[in-house]
Amino acid sequence: MTDSATHSSRSATPPSSVTLNAEVNGVTFFNPENGYAVLRIKVRDEPGIVTAVGNVVQVKPGEMLNLTGQWKEHPKYGRQFLIEALEPLLPAGVNAIRRYLASGQLKGVGPTLAERLVKQFKDKTLDVIDTDPDQLLRVEGIGPSKLKKIVQSWEEQHHVRALILFLQEHDVSPALAARIHRHYGPQALHKVRENPYDLAYEVHGIGFKTADVIALKLGFAPDCRERLEAALVFALFQFSESGHLFAPLDELLEKTSALLGGTPAESLHGALEILKERKRVILEELPAQGLGTVVYLGHFHRWEKEIAQRLQGLIEHPTGLDPRKLRVVLQQLEARHRITLSPQQRQAVEDACLNKVFILTGGPGTGKTTITRFVVEAITELGITVKLAAPTGRAAKRLSEATRAPASTLHRLLQYAPDGGFAINDTKMLKTGMLVVDEASMLDCHLFLAVLRALPLTARLVLVGDVNQLPSVGPGNILGDLLQSGALPSTELTHIYRQAQESMIVVNAHRINQGQFPLHSPKAAPEADFFWIEQDDSTRVQEMILRMVCERIPAGYGLDPRQDIQVLTPMHKGEVGTQQLNALLQQRLNPKGREFAVGFRKLRVGDRVLQTRNNYDKDVFNGDLGWIASVDLEEGQAVVEFDGRDVTYELTEMDELNLAYAVSVHKSQGSEYPAVVMPLLTQHFLLLQRNLIYTGLTRARRLAVILGGKKALAIGLKNAKAKNRYTDLARRIVEMMGG
Known about the structure:
Layout (H helix, E strand, L loop, with lengths): L17 E13 L5 E8 L5 E7 L8 E11 L3 E12 L4 H9 L8 H11 L3 H7 L12 H26 L7 H8 L3 H7 L3 H5 L5 H10 L7 H17 L4 E3 H11 L9 H9 L3 E6 L5 E6 H19 L6 H15 L5 H12 L2 E6 L5 H14 L4 E5 L2 H11 L3 E3 H4 L20 E4 L7 H10 L5 E6 L12 H8 L4 E4 L4 H4 L2 H10 L16 E4 L4 H20 L7 E5 L8 H12 L5 E4 L2 E4 L3 E4 L13 E8 L4 E6 L2 E6 L6 E3 L2 E3 L8 E7 L10 H8 L2 E8 L2 H9 L10 H8 L3
Parallel strand pairs: 3-5, 9-13, 9-14, 10-11, 10-12, 12-13, 15-26, 16-24, 16-25, 25-26
Antiparallel strand pairs: 1-2, 1-4, 2-3, 4-5, 6-8, 7-8, 17-18, 19-20, 19-23, 20-21, 21-22
Helix pairs in contact: 1-2, 9-10, 9-11, 12-18, 12-26, 13-14, 13-15, 14-15, 19-26, 21-24, 22-23, 24-25
C-alpha cells in the first residue's frame, strides 16, 4: 500500500534520445523499492561493455532489450546510458539464447538444460518453445511435468512483456509490470485498463499516486467518481496500516485531499456518500471519544462488532468446573514441581481455569510462564482437552517448551486457506475445551476474530501477553482494548521474582516501561547481561555493531554469531538500517556461501532469512526465521530450513524472503534470541517509542546491548502515546455485556 515507483515526466521522446539494441551482460545494482537499476550491457556496434541506468523491470543476463534514452557523462562513473524506456526482445543467436536460458528466466531451466536445448534446436530454440513446445520432450531431462512448468513460465513472460509496453506508453515505470502481473496473472492488462485505481489497494507496493498516474494517462478525469472513491478508500487503508480501524471524518478528508493534490474536501462528500450506499464504508458518531463522525472500511466495522458479539456468546455459555477439584489438583501439581505458588499466582491459575475468557498480562520475570504451565497441566489433569497456540512459529516453540505440551502457530491451528480465510471456522470448529494463546499483544482484529469463530461455545479462552509491548502489526489493539473494557476477568502480574531481579535485562525492561533510563550492569562480561553504550554517530554505531556481532560477543559469551545474535533496528534505511546492516553482516558472517541471484539480490547458502508474508502452500508464515540450506540452479529451486523442517522454494518465489541478520523490532515480536544488539539514534526519532525499545529489549534472553545516545533514548522514553489507535472495541464490549 505504498507508492514506490518513480515515473518519467516526459510527454514525448526528447529529440536527443536514441534507441539501442542491447544484451544484458550483468546487473550491478537493483533497488526493489523503485526499480532503479545499474546494468552492464553489450550494445550492437559499440565496443566493449557499457553501463546503463534507470528504472527497469527485473531483467537478467542474456536478455535482449531495445533501450531508449540518452548518453550522459557521469562526473564519477563516466559515460552512462540513461534509460527512459525499454522494450524486452527475444534474444537472437545461439550464444545469446544460451545465456538467456541459463540465467533462470524459465522455471525448470538451468545452465545444463540450457546447453542441451541449444545443442538440440540451435537458434530455433525459442521458436520451438513458443510454437511447438512438445518437441522439448526429445531433450534429456525434460518430461511432461517439467515441460508444463517451462510452457507456463514462457506464457507468463509473454503477458509481462505486453504489460511493460502498455505501461510505458503511459509513462509508467516498467519496474511495476512484474509486480502487477504476479497479482493478477494473465488478466493483468485487462485489469489495469478497466480500473487502474484498483491497483492502489490490491497490489502490494503500488500506492494511490502510482495508480493515479496510470489512470490520468488513460484518460480518467481528475474529478471522476472512480478517482475520488479510490482516494478515500486508499486513505482509509493507510489509516489501517498505522493500526487504526477507522478514521475521524475531518482527518480522512484532509488526508484524501492531500492525496488528490489539494482537491477541496467539500467535493469528496458525494463520493463518500456513494461508498456509504454501497456499504464500502460505514459512518458512525463517537461523541464519547470526542471524535464526532468517524469512517470505517465496511469489513473493519463488521469485524469489530462481531468480535464483541462472539465474546459475549462465549462468556454467557456456561461450562461448569468444580473449584474444589481444581484446588486439589493445584496442590498436587505444587508438590510434584516442588513449587509453592504465591496467593496472586494461585488465584490467577484458578481464574484462568474457571472463567470462559481470561487475560493474563505482565512483564518479564513476573511469572507468566509458571502460571501458564500450571493452567495447562491442571486443565489436562481434570480431563479437559487443551490446545496451545501463538501468532508466530518462534513464540509457539517457546510456549511448547515452557508447558511441555504441543503448540502451533494460530495460522496452522486454524488452517490458513488460499482465499485468506481459515478452514477451521464457525462451520468447522476446533475440538478443544480450552485454547491458550500466548503473545496476545500481536493479535490483530482479523486474526482474533478467526480465533473466536473457530472456538466452540463450550470452550475456554486464555490470552497471555504483555500489554506494554508493541501492538499488532495489523489493524486493531486487541489486548489493550480487552483490558480497557474492564468487562473480562484478568490479572496483571507486577511482582518481579527474586531470580529475575538478578537480570539487568528484566530490571531495565521495567525501568524503560516506566519511562526511566536503564541502569548499567554492576557486572562485567561475560557475567553481565546488559550494556548501554552511549554513541550518537551512526558511522561509529555501524562499526560497533559489526565488531560486536562478529567478534566481541562470540569471544566473550561463546555465542554463534550466525545463530544466536540478532540485530534489531527501528529502521530499514540508513547506516544502521536493516538493508545496509544485512549486506555488511552477510559479507562478514557468510562470505563463502554459494551465491545465487534472486532478481537483483544476492543470497547465499547458509544465509539467515525471514519469511515476509504468509504462504499457506508451504506452511510458512510472516515472521518465520529460517536458513538457506541448499540451492539447485538447474531446477531453479532452493531449500530453506525452518526449525528443522525443509521447505522448497522456486527461485522466483524467493522474494518472500529477506536477509535476517538484522531485522526490524516489529518483525522480532514473538521471538526470543540469546543475544540482541539494538541501535537507537536520533535519526530514528519518528519511530522511537517507549514500547518499541521495551519490545526490543525483552527479546533478549542472555545478553542485550543498546547502542545510542541519551538524547535518542530520552525521545523514545517520553513517547508513550504511540499505543493510541482508533478503535471502538472496548466500548462495544462494555455495551454488549450490559455495562
